[in-house]
Amino acid sequence: MNYGALIFLVGFIGLASSWFGLVLAPQLQLGRQPITKIQGGNDPYPSRRPGLAEQGLQVYRANGCVSCHSQQVQQSGTVFDVVMTELGTNQPAVVAALAKLDSKLTGASLSSLPQDVVRGVNKLQADEVNAAFKDTGAKVAVQIRPVGPDMDWGWGRRATVAADFLQDSPVMPGSQRLGPDLANVGVRKPDVNWHLVHLYAPKSVVPDSTMPPYRFLFEKRKIDRHASPDALQLTGEAAPEAGYEIVPTAEAKALAAYLASLRADVPLFEAPMTAK
Q1: Residue 204 in this model has a pLDDT that exceeds 60
Q2: DSSP string, the chain
């Protein structure tokens, strides 16, 4: 009896099984983009960047922006603030509770809420302040606030974590800062047109900027009959001579869209903060 076909079939099944176990299964597990969950909600994070912003990531990489900018906000610690959101109906009890606390909030300022009762305390102190108002009828909230030099600079509200880069390929965390951190620049500067002007003439919007102009990403055109709706609104030395306009190329538009999409500002379990 000829067993050649059977031997071939067994060998083929064995090789196919090995390929599935060593190649296909890991790809199915690791090749998919994982997601995390926003603290206090079920929304997945991060969402995929819009198509133009995804293209802009490649422009960002190609032009070496990562050499001067980081995308990793550092955090030195976490503090807690206790905020009064509602006064309730027993104001004398609230005033009495405030008198026992080391708080800048007084009875005279209770007409405008919410107001901070205490700021920058540890968790135990925050819980004690919260408990002090338990029987007064007032509503207070304990809020988590990350702190550090990067937060003082306004570069972000929490530390950057790996989850922030789950939808990016390649990731661009950077390693040095000749310019400001960009992890949250889309919150600070959400206007795409601002980014376009900044790319063309940095000092026109940031007088002390050390960033070189990226004018090769723009076209200087002679105005024929009508000005282009995409033309930059430039003034002073950055403005072209009369009869000409500066128009962003597709690469400039994509890069500006990417910068405006950098918004690492949601609370995560691994990077908690109180959403505002």
Answers
A1: yes
A2: ---HHHHHHHHHHHHHHHHIIIIIHHHHHHSS---EEBTTS--EESPPPPHHHHHHHHHHHHTTGGGT--------EEEEEEEEEE--S-HHHHHHHHHTS--S--GGGTTS-SEEEEEEE-HHHHHHHHHHTTTTS-EEEEEEEEESHHHHTTS-SS---GGGGTT-SS----S--SS---TTHHHH---HHHHHHHHH-HHHHSTT--PPP-GGGEEEEE--SS--TT-----GGGSPPTTEEEEE-HHHHHHHHHHHT----S-BSSS-----
The confidence band for 47, taking pLDDT boundaries of 50, 70 and 90, is confident
Same structural domain, 135 and 197: no
Q: Tell me the percentage of the chain whose pLDDT exceeds 90.
A: 64
Q: Give the range of the structural domain holding residue 114, as residue numbers without chain letter.
A: 77-147
Residue 8 reports pLDDT greater than 70: no
> Could you say which of 122, 147, 172 is where a domain stops?
147
| Number of folded domains that form the chain | 2
What pLDDT does residue 106 have? 75
Whether pTM > 0.85 for this model: the answer is no
> Is the same domain home to 70 and 201?
yes
Residues 64 and 159 placed together within one structural domain of the fold: yes
Residue 38 lies in a domain: no
Regarding whether 66 and 93 lie in a shared domain, the answer is: no
Res. 31 pLDDT band, cuts 50 70 90: very low
